[in-house]
Predict the 3D structure of the following.
Amino acid sequence: MSNYAIILAGGIGSRFWPLSRECLPKQFLRIIGKDTLLETTIKRIRPIILNENIFIVTNRIYLEEIKRQSRKFRIPAENIVLEPKPLNTLPAISLCAQIISLKDNQANLLVLPTDHYIKNRLEFKQDILKAQNLAAKGFLCLMGIKPDSPRLGYGYIKTGGKIGQSTFYVKSFQEKPTLNRAKSLLKEKDTFWNAGIFYFKPGVLLREIKIHLPGFYRQITKIKDKQDIKKVWYKIKPISIDYGLLERSRNLVMIKAQFDWCDLGSWNTLCSVLLKDSKNNVILSDSVNLDSSGIFVYSHNPQHLIATIGLKDLIIADTQDALLVCRKDKSQEIKRLVEILKKKRKKCV
């Protein structure tokens, strides 16, 4: 029995516009530190997963960039799995699980995205090793984060009985609840955010798919090698693992994460993990500021000086061809803005 990793690297990252673009999304950018988010994710799991057992699933347009960034880690090129078109997380995960199962039907699979900030790697490793043990016993294992606010973009895990130290059975799962429901869940001590990190055996995942999505199961199990992907891919409907399985499965367990975690889903969440000055400002550019507080200033253009006066709780992100000025509490609306720009056929997306 071997341990494998599936890294999800096909997203566009539109909430990080104007820095993240469809041609070069956030997972390939150096947003925090000297490494890209993809490189950071690979480095995080290398003490746990062998290089040759790391798989990356992505879109065809990102193939060369992923080859370039993964080459230094000696990840085999054949471990890059291409989706003919994006169909959300469950098809991407299931595709890799099916391919790996044909190679090793006793494998344990770690699934993780590229847009997480995880500070303490030792605690991360310890939690992942716990997850390996639970996956080996036939569970779909989730990582739970203790919530601090009613965020609408997350899945919420409600735990049941305790299995062991920091490990629980999952009583129920709810993806992206309403604000009132999220507030209600937050009052219950047995509620956690879903970190989007999973561990399971491919056969366990496929069995759950067969139970809850039999039509999808019939299509995904027709894939016997990479040549079969195109034959079935356009017959599959987009669906996330959260709505497709986690809300339905009764075979879920959860580990209460001991590591610090942040989902880098937007400029606002990025700001929350960066060093701030005495007035809660994050300045990542050549800039002059007078009497502003709670602002985030980023420039990808070293030739631009950004001057700010008397501003409060704003995001300012400057690139060669676009400038974003946004209230922090509206940062989730950037995705909708990008959709409007696409409809207007603007080149800056």
